Amino acid sequence: MLIAEKKLEIKEIVKNARSEGRTIGLVPTMGYLHKGHVSLINRAKMDGCFTVVSIFVNPLQFGPTEDFEKYPRDIERDIEILKQADTDVAFIPSISEMYHNTHLTQVDVSILSEKLEGVFRPGHFKGVCTVVAKLFNIIRPDRAYFGWKDAQQLIIIRKMVADLDFNLEIVPVPTVREDDGLAASSRNVYLSDQDRKKACVLSKALHKIRKMVELYKITDVRILLEESKKIIETENVELQYIEAVDLETLKPVTSIKKNTGILAAIKVGNVRLIDNVIWE
To answer: How far is the C-alpha of 128 from the C-alpha of 150, rounded, in Å?
Structure first.
């Protein structure tokens, strides 16, 4: 596996791969890799891509009270995981490499970025879109892989790609779950054993919703959300939102059908966790 720390390095590596007729697949990450990230890499490899994984903890997407300094980092561990996953190249730039001193430009997908997570993390998606747009311009992938676990992020990135005419395909990949049902996330490491048990109430509630829709054919959102809230209330967690939305506009829906989903966030202690159930 190759490792590049400079933009000029990764551009040259990708140029050489493309000259050999390879399709370029990008998996953007903030490191502290888990099974969810590996599933994205595996999908890119399955698609026959020359697979580039970026590791960059992006300061622009953290609010002033959020956990940028404490965000888990372990580059040596990540590199080992990437090697085991047969990654072709890791792009691991510094902050100064990604953002020069006079950097002013940011990318804002308005309206979509102001809902759900945007209410609790204002400015977050502006930071996400800015760094992803930069990665797309630096690496120029043919495909970029994002997980449905971060559904709002995926929807916003797809909109950005469409609106700004990026010449690539966004490939969504299903959420990967831990053995206890918790959606794989780098922030899970923050949870104590006791808080982790509490956190699983969210995936239990979403699993119940999926069962009600797919097994019992109940599609009325009001009934589904009422049932999910009853389950979540059985644990001492803070429900920040749970909403049924269209997967393109993020507008509320009243019944579940194709291209809709239920997105939710809870806070357990000081840890925010997001999860969802999706009908593509």
So the answer is: 12
Which amino acid is present at 151?
A
265: which residues sit within 8 A by CB, 6+ positions away? 116, 117, 120, 239, 240, 241, 242, 272, 273, 274, 275
Residues in the chain, total: 280
Burial of 142 (0-12, 13-18, 19+ CB in 10 A): middle
- Placement of tokens 């609790």 in the chain: 120
Tell me which H or E stretch contains 198. Answer: helix 193-214
Nearest alpha carbon to residue 180 among 194, 170, 164: 194
29 touches 76 (CB < 8 A): no
Same domain? For 147 and 192 the reply is no
Band (pLDDT 50/70/90 cuts) for residue 98 is very high
Asked about 37 being catalytic, the answer comes back as yes
Residue 29's domain is classified under what CATH number? 3.40.50.620
- Boundary-marking domain end, from 173, 205, 230: 173
* From 34, 37, 100, 124, active-site residue: 37
Can you read off the two tokens belonging to residue 126?
């502006």
The secondary structure of the chain in percent helix, strand, coil, rounded to multiples of 5, reads 45, 20, 35
Query: Using one digit for the tens of pLDDT, what is the confidence trace for 149-208?
Result: 999 999 999 999 999 999 999 999 999 999 999 999 999 999 999 999 999 999 999 999
